[in-house]
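Task: sequence design from structure.
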């Protein structure tokens, strides 16, 4: 069995059966590419079905020696485990060599969040005198109001807006859909954007149902959203690193700090596991400090 053939089969499996996004598939394939290079350079072009646990342990040492961080190592090992599970399912291998392969221990990284005042400052920094200004303001309000991933924002469709009911339908990871409440403020800014900017564009046929467009009438790229927010953060005078995901983190943190039910926040974020959502319960340090001061016998 050749690496390229097995990799193509795995890629088709991820796309057709798992329904993963192009970005997720690319990440998995990148993991397999690393193992392919290792097998080629260090294992005398060893075929996939010949790979054993001891080979994989050496592979982990190999990427560690190259300076790959523990978090990236864990991500790579996860991708390789999925690859061999696929090969086992397809009957390409007789056993899974990754069963006893351990990932490096990594600490849980708490995401950066913005205060409500910092959110307002970021949005107020948008230059509404520029043609795309109202679009950018509407995007920031939508990110914060709905807690969207950047991929969900760029793919948001007009046909999925139900403003009369106060919801938008979001197409999340692996094609999973969810309904998310949208604030009156975000609805107002989106409507202004559609009246002021979007209707002036010559819209590409493949983007007619896409809400947020660039000046050529096409769907915005993820990179463009990152660039817009990065530039606004610099203009607002922020020193900490701010990305589209910062708005999602802030959305979740502010909800939970305000007393929102964890399960409801999980549903709105589109998290499969409640454990992923629970990280936001650890972010309000002032609340934790006040709780200790109020209830701990030594306080």
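Answer:
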């Amino acid at each position: 069995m050749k690496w390229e053939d097995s990799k193509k089969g795995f890629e088709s499996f991820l796309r057709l059966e798992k329904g993963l996004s192009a970005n997720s598939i690319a990440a998995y394939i990148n993991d397999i590419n690393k193992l392919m290079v290792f097998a080629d350079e260090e294992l005398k072009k060893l075929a996939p079905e010949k790979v054993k646990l001891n080979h994989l342990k050496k592979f982990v040492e190999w990427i560690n020696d190259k300076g790959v961080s523990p978090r990236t190592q864990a991500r790579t090992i996860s991708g390789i485990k999925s690859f061999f599970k696929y090969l086992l399912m397809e009957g390409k291998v007789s056993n899974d060599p990754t069963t006893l392969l351990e990932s490096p221990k990594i600490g849980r990284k708490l995401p950066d969040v913005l205060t409500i005042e910092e959110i307002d400052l970021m949005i107020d920094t948008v230059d509404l005198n520029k043609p795309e200004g109202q679009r950018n303001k509407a995007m920031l309000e939508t990110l914060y109001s709905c807690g969207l991933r950047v991929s969900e924002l760029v793919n948001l469709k007009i046909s999925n807006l139900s403003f009369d009911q106060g919801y938008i339908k979001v197409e999340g990871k692996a094609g999973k859909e969810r309904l998310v409440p949208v604030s009156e403020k975000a609805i107002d800014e989106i409507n202004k954007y559609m009246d002021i900017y979007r209707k002036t564009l010559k819209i590409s046929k493949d983007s007619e149902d896409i809400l947020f467009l660039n000046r050529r009438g096409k769907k915005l790229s993820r990179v463009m959203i990152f660039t817009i927010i990065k530039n606004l953060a610099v203009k607002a005078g922020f020193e900490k690193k701010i990305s589209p995901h910062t708005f999602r983190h802030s959305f979740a943190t502010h909800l939970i700090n305000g007393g929102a039910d964890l399960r409801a926040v999980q549903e709105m974020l589109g998290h499969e596991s409640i454990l992923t959502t629970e990280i936001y319960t650890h972010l309000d340090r002032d609340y934790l400090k006040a709780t200790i001061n109020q209830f701990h016998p030594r306080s």
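The mean pLDDT is 88.
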